Amino acid sequence: MPRLPLLAAVCVIICAMPAHGDESAELAELIDRQVQAALTSASLTAAPAADDAEFLRRAYLDFHGVVPPLERTLQFLGSNAAGKRTELIDELLASPRFGEHFGDIWRTRLISPLVNEERQRSDNFAAWLAERFNRNDGWDRLTRNLLTATGKLEENPGVTYLIEGRNPLGVTDLTDLTSRYFLGVRLNCAQCHDHPFVAWKRQDYWGMAAFFAQIQTPQRAKLVYMAGVQDNPKFTLATLPAADAIDGYQPRSPTFLGGAELKADGKQPLRVALADWLTSPENPYLARAAVNRLWWHFFGRGLVNPVDDMHSGNAPSHPELLDTLSRRFVQSGFDLKLFCRAIAMSHTYQQTSRPGEQRDEAAKLFGRMSVKTLSPEQLYDSLALILGPPGKTPGIDAKLGTRYEFTQYFAGDGDGDPTRYERGIPHLLRLMNSPQFAGQSIASLVSRVTAGRADHATDELFLTILARLPTSAERELMQQRLAGAKSPDSAYRELAWALLMSSEFSLNH
Questions:
Q1: Any residues with CB less than 8 A from the CB of 127 and at least 6 apart, and which?
Q2: What torsion, rounded to 10 degrees, do the Cα atoms 53, 54, 55, 56 define?
Q3: 193, 206 Cβ separation under 8 angstroms
Q4: Is residue 398 part of a domain?
Q5: pTM (whole model) above 0.85
Q6: How wide is the angle at C-alpha 288 spanned by C-alphas 419 and 157, nearest 5°?
Q7: Does residue 251 form part of some domain?
Q8: 110 in a domain, yes or no?
Q9: CB within 8 Å of 462: residues ≥ 6 apart
Q10: Over 90: is that where the pLDDT of 113 sits?
Q11: Could you please report the per-residue DSSP string of 20-60?
């Protein structure tokens, strides 16, 4: 094994234990206890723990959106420290990369893909989000900042959500996005008619929409980019441009979801009142939606699935667990890092994704880890880490940036199922023939690997690309290929290419 013993002896990362360390451990035990109870009730057993290589790669992808760098892989796999997994979790949470990854995720959820000069505004918004995730602002505070943001884009990137989310953004768009991502419900089905299967009525939709009627948005005024986001108390749903042409338009006073009508005094913008209600500790939606979506992020499916369709007819798989975690999330001050840490510390998260003897029902009850497809951003950033900065792409506008072009090609619509592999032949061909990563990038990787001890090149390619050592069978196959190759470098280039094109590389398992 190349360099493992040496690095294990000389490289140790010491991470300070967060102040909420005991609470994280308690929550992790609660998660495991309630998941195990559901498994026992279904006559299922939890899968064994993932090995270190499986856990390391999974944690890096979930916390940082990229595969682990070679040096960190060597260090982690070479360590016998009892608490190294918890130390790794703390290390990942403390890194600026944590906020950058979550900022990237929420940028793609809240605003549309933008091009050319608008792309800078999108990047500024992602950086604004990253700062708040790294600073660990409570989820309630971040939600409030997004809903009540005012001013110009260049002065306050937080208004990007109100101006450029799912262009063209207006009252109905804001109602749909806010209900999906902050309430965990799909109100859009009630825009034109009462929902046929759920309790949501047209009056629920337009009661929520009324809170956004005062905002100056691109739909309301084209000068919003110059003047910034403002609230005009004279604006109502009835004063919307061509209000009667909006599908399903129904005059309605501002009404909170659940039926309570706002007692407005005209002294504060309506969306401030909405933020007050939404971020209140008594609000029945915000914490449940956030906990469910966080669970969905780490496990590939929510305690309620689909993740943005929470209602009485769509029961949680673990009702008591969702209730308890939601209550504790509020009590913690909506502390995202605390809950990320608790989930990652649990056996439920740290168990293997290998099916073994487990039936498919086990994955639905979190009896083993689900295999998730890498997001376009995870795929690009992992390729860039392994192969180095990509080369220029012929025919691509330099303003777009190669990452943007790549991720848009692989992007899906909305909140797709992370456990479904929906990429087809065009995506595979795009990877195989990508001018960004082909040719010289592979050759440079092989040169770096063989520059040291060439007899360990096979191991290092596996460690670099898949974050694990080859099996004895894989090592034997490579020996056979080396024996028949024209040159060792050509065989190693073939191996690197095969590993990068493998399903194991494009999946988070």
A1: 103, 157
A2: 50
A3: no
A4: yes
A5: yes
A6: 85
A7: no
A8: no
A9: 468, 469, 470, 474, 499
A10: no
A11: THHHHHHHHHHHHHHHHHHHHHTT--PPPBPPHHHHHHHHH
Of 83, 84, 86, 76, nearest in space to 24 by CA: 86
Q: Which of 103-107, 267-271, 277-281, 397-401 is predicted least confidently? A: 397-401
Q: What was the pLDDT predicted at 116? A: 52
Joined tokens for residue 487 = 């040159």
H or E, element range at 235: none
Average pLDDT of the segment spanning 265-276: 90
Six token digits for residue 249: 């338009």
User: Which range is least confidently modeled, 243-247, 402-406, 487-491?
Assistant: 243-247
Answer left, alpha or beta for residue 467, where phi above 0 means left and psi between -120 and 50 means alpha. Answer: left
Q: How far apart are CA 503 and CA 377, in angstroms?
A: 16
Q: Which residues form the domain of 497?
A: 373-508
Helix (H) or strand (E) holding 445: helix 440-450
Which of 394, 285, 400, 386 lies closest to 334 in space, CA to CA? 285
For range 410-417, the mean pLDDT: 71
In this structure, is residue 489 part of a structural domain?
yes
Taking each helix axis from N to C terminus, what angle separates 84-94 and 336-345, rounded to the nearest 10 degrees? 150
What is the number of structural domains in the chain? 1
Closest alpha carbon to 373 in 61, 17, 108: 61
**Per-residue pLDDT tens digits for 439-473:** 678 888 999 888 867 678 999 999 999 999 999 99
